[in-house]
Amino acid sequence: MALSSDQFQFTRPQALALTAGVLQLAFGWLDLFALDPNYRVVQLGVGVMGILMAWRLGLARMYGLVLLLGFGLLALSLHDLTTESFLGVRTALIGLVITLARPAKRVPN
């Protein structure tokens, strides 16, 4: 499912990166999970980064890889089960999906 025109093509990984960025930004801004303030700042930064990196396919995949590695290592370094560790695992899995998602083939008109 690629949204395309003659000059612009928006692929699945880009759409996923944009969606993940907007959700991270919203969760950090609204504080839905009563998180540590430092973790909220990280969520805000990751959200802005996702929105900015969604405009190119290579950058969207790089964003997914950053989420996978960064939050995966964060989740592994936390020794107790907290909301932050759960969100870290969730964000790492989102990064895996963004990294492995295939762009849709262009449909001829």
Strand and helix map with partners:
Elements: E1 3-4, E2 9-10, H1 12-30, H2 37-53, H3 57-77, H4 83-100
Antiparallel strand pairs: 1-2
Helix pairs in contact: 1-2, 1-3, 1-4, 2-3, 3-4
Structure description:
- Keywords: Membrane, Transmembrane, Transmembrane helix.
- The chain crosses the membrane at residues 62-79, 85-104.
- By secondary structure, this protein is mostly helical.
- It has one domain.
- Helices cover 69% and strands 4% of the residues.
- It contains four helices and two strands.
- The protein has a two-stranded antiparallel sheet.
- A hairpin with a 4-residue loop joins strand 1 and strand 2 (9-10).
- Helix 1 (12-30) packs antiparallel against helix 4.
- It is globular, with a radius of gyration of 15 Å.
- The mean pLDDT is 86.
Percent range for helical residues? 55-70%
Structural class: mainly alpha
- Overall residue-averaged pLDDT value: 86
Biggest sheet layout: 2 strands, antiparallel
Shape: globular
Strand neighbour order, sheet with most strands: 1-2
Number of strands: 2
The Rg value, from CA coordinates, equals 15 Å
What is the overall number of helices?
4
User: What letter string, H or E per element, gives the SSE order?
Assistant: EEHHHH
- The poorly predicted ranges are none
Distance between the termini: 14 Å
In short:
With 109 residues, the protein is mostly helical. It is built from 4 helices and 2 strands, in the order ββαααα. 69% of the residues lie in helices and 4% in strands.
